[in-house]
Amino acid sequence: MLYNHKILAIEKDEIKHLNEKLKLANIKLQEYASRIEEVAISNERTRVAQELHDSLGHSLMALTMHLEFAKKICTTKPQKVEEVLSQSEKIAKGSINDLRKVVTLLNSESEIMDLNSSIEKLISNFYLVSNLKISYIKDDGINNLSGIIKTSLYKTIQESVTNSLKHGNSTEIDIKIKTSNKNVELIITDNGVGSNNILKSNGLKGIDNRINSLGGNTYYFSHNNLGFGIRASIPL
Question: Alpha-carbon distance 232 to 178, whole Å?
Fold first, then answer.
């Protein structure tokens, strides 16, 4: 009886010890779950911020340039103002649609399916700006790219054009897309003010993250008064 009593006491202590371990494990599990939730929320905020930056930044830059152009010609070319304002209205409505898409598609980023048409539409936003020339060269291989690669290339072009106009004061922008059996390469150059010291903004960091997530790499090159360039390569 004494032996059995001793065994029961030992088992009771072991159960108490296991319960304490279980409580501690539950506490740690709750803390871990809380941290995971915080990271998920932070990542989602970053993604939303990047999406807003990408979709609206370009449109607002185009809208600003058109309104500034209208202001300059309102007295010298009043007949042209109506056309510029009409294009400005079109860009503004497009921005509203982009914002709606961001709000409704937070859980899944829509992919670009027709890359060529999307790029030409992006460039057409600036067709009325007489002192700006944007050239675009591509090969037929872009039609065979996956949706996620097309989207990454489009957003890279979108951000680069916006940066060229906003920070570089460029008047010429060249866009080239080349495909091969191994990779697709995007090269964008401008004749802007350039810089000997490239500081990566949220836009450039977003480009890096997007290209790197596909196993690709980016290279930036620039010098004072010699423009800015980006070369992005994504393996196929």
Answer: 11
Instruction: Judge whether 73 lies within some domain.
Output: no
- Range 120-132 average pLDDT: 83
Q: What percent of the chain has pLDDT over 90?
A: 32
Other C-beta atoms lying within 10 Å of the C-beta of residue 7: 10
pLDDT in tens, 9-51: 676 767 767 766 666 666 665 555 556 655 655 666 676 677 7
Residue at 128 is within a domain: yes
- Continuous segment of H or E residues that includes residue 208: helix 202-212
CB 57 within 8 A of CB 159: yes
Distance CA 44, CA 100 (A): 17
For the stretch 187-234, pLDDT in tens is 999 999 988 888 887 788 889 988 998 999 999 999 888 899 999 999
Question: What single DSSP character describes residue 188?
Answer: E
The DSSP call for residue 112 is P
Per DSSP, the three-state class of 214 is: coil
Range of the domain at 182: 112-236
Does residue 198 sit within a domain?
A: yes
Domain count, the chain: 1
In whole angstroms, give the CA distance from residue 62 to residue 66.
6
DSSP letter, residue 186:
E
Q: How remote is the C-alpha of 123 from its chain's centroid? A: 17
**Cβ-based neighbours of 112, under 8 Å, separated by 6 or more:** 118, 147, 150, 151, 153, 154
DSSP 133-156: EEEEEE-GGGGGS-HHHHHHHHHH
